[in-house]
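Aggregate trends can hide what the representation actually does to any particular protein. For completeness, the protein is quoted in full, as a sequence line and a line of structure tokens.
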Amino acid sequence: MLDKVRMVMVETTHPGNIGAAARAMKTMGLSDLRLVAPKIHPSAEATARASGAGDVLAAAQVCATLDEALDGATLVIGTSARQRRIPWPCLTPRQLTAQLAREPEDTRIAVLFGREDRGLTNDELHRCNLHVSVPTNPDYGVLNVASAIQLMAYELRLALVGEDADLPEARSRREQMPLPEMFWDEPAASNQAVQQFLDHLQRVMEDSGFLDPEQPGQVMTRMRRLFLRARPDKMEISILRGTLVALEKRLRGPDSR
């Protein structure tokens, strides 16, 4: 399942961190690195810091937008050390391990890492189903982004493969283990599909007069938290979008088409 995990670095300033991230990922068996608008890439410094993980670095996808980097992802995890005005589902890396153990096999995971100086923005964090915060020294909680990627890559490997994954006896045990009883009749909706639904929902709420675009308060933040926590599947999103279309027709009047 490691091939279904991508690490996403947003607007990285120091190219050495990109190379170090590639090295951290390869050490743990990850290979899908996506770079959203990096300040400098490619660079000799990144190549030097990759040190044996040049293949991961060379294969890194440079994306112009976060939407492009998250395309197809069904579970988006944001790393953040900041406290939020409105609480969001937040886990430690070890708690995330337990969460991922219950995920369907077709889950496509994206883990977001923010800028070196200020992390992820609120809008970027609003794209995430879960937030992960590393328990650090309260007097000095600074964690280099490449170090954070190493830590998360290790936890992901434990969660998805296991600490003794390459031992023959471990492979034999996994082959004999029954499949978990967790299943679903429809695949999860992609992060992009959920975001499109939320944008549609906001338009309808504004058109109906329920939501004042000049004074929106925290309404959409709470709606995003609700639907990202629920993680609807493709059919559920289709039903919700259809409901919004029907409401829009009613708002326009009987003569609308």
Summary: Strands lie at 5-10, 32-36, 61-63, 75-79, 90-91, 109-113, 130-132. Confidence is low (pLDDT under 50) at residues 167-183. The CA atoms of residues 203 and 224 lie 14 Å apart. The first strand starts at residue 5 and ends at 10.
